Write a sequence for this structure.
């Protein structure tokens, strides 16, 4: 068996999410269908992270094993051929050792959250940004975001359905930068809880709109209660940008 | 009557183009329907330039007259309300003098052409870039582009269907810049012939792929014959960025 690592870009809009589910098309399911078409047999594909419905990726990572070594570029091009009707593209395919695991070998994950902060709605970036028509203060959001950086119990920013054993995570970076009408939130950590980025962004928008200050973010973190933090930002602004391996 | 100038962003993918036509939905038709819904009567909307089917706009300009002065922000917000299901958004509405004409008052037009130059196809920018999988030399394209800058008879770069009286135009700027996998061509002139930007881009791609040098571009310009220049680049990479007024 030969193990391949895939780096994947996708538009999450038409999918139920990364993970294969009974209720609709998934990114994993599309890629597994392409791999099956290429190999002539069903093969499981394992992703680094489960993006939700509507969440995009610029650099999701996955791995799978195939019975023969056909060359990495051939794998990439063949999968892109079978995926040509889907908004999914294989950016890279690389041969990796059999102890590589897209999820368990990952040592860092990078997310981007895009907010379009202008009164007119998006035309070209529909379903690619969170449209927020009222002006918000990105500098205040950045300052408050620093409260969340570091080792914390992120229970307040964790989906109630989250299956992670521990709510304690180390957030390495959470930056908020405005560029014209667009606000970009970038987050980096070894791993994240379910909905953590979207819940942090939703909370920071309360700061940006003047409803909350940094002390409120601090208090919501210390409360260790999902109800103490802000709402979940919508999926369409979120991008899985990169997954790091040793 | 009160005249309003609109600045408009749109995704040209689902449309037959800017101009109202019998064979499908047009951007002009969608905006006229929104204006009619707002005013309660049919009203013509005049655009600065007729973008082709699949061509996008970041800053198309149009004007129209309505019987009452309702305030520019109200016009913008009302039209965006009626356009909410269309990938068209009114960025700005401004009251202008009655001698303002979106097309005839314009003194400058700016276009952007986006090329995705990588082997994997676009997933997130489908229908928003020209995908060109073979590596091209953007610096060579930029150098050759300078042959086209200035006052010239652009017959070789004009659609055979072009209705402009004269093929002589002044091209103020034609720049080609690579940023990672994306090549951006920016063009500025008082006005352009039909298909001029797409025909120049298609020709420059022959230079980028090594088929042609600057002397060939020069010869094709001097031939004053459409058949002497390169092919028409596809519409999905083209954006009308800005229209200038005195």
């Amino acid at each position: 068996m030969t193990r391949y690592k895939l780096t994947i870009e996708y538009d999450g809009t038409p999918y139920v999410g990364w993970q294969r589910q009974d209720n609709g098309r998934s990114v994993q399911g599309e890629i597994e269908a392409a791999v099956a078409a290429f190999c002539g047999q069903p093969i499981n594909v394992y992703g680094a992270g489960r993006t939700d419905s509507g969440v995009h990726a610029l650099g999701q990572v996955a791995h799978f094993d195939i019975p023969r070594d056909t060359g990495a570029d051939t794998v990439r091009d063949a999968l892109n051929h079978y995926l040509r009707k889907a908004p999914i593209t294989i950016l890279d395919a690389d041969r990796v050792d059999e102890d590589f695991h897209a999820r368990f070998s990952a040592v860092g994950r990078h997310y981007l959250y895009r907010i379009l902060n202008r009164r007119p709605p998006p035309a070209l970036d529909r379903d690619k940004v969170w449209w927020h028509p009222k002006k918000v203060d990105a500098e205040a959001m950045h300052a408050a975001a620093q409260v969340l950086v570091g080792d914390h119990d992120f229970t307040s920013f964790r989906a109630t359905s989250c299956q992670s054993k521990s709510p304690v995570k180390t957030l390495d970076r959470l930056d908020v930068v405005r560029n014209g009408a667009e606000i970009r939130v970038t987050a980096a950590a070894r791993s994240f809880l379910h909905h953590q980025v979207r819940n942090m962004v939703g909370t920071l928008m309360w700061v940006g709109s003047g409803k909350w200050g940094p002390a409120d973010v601090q208090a919501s973190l210390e409360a260790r209660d999902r109800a103490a933090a802000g709402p979940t930002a919508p999926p369409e602004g979120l991008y899985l940008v990169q997954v790091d391996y040793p």
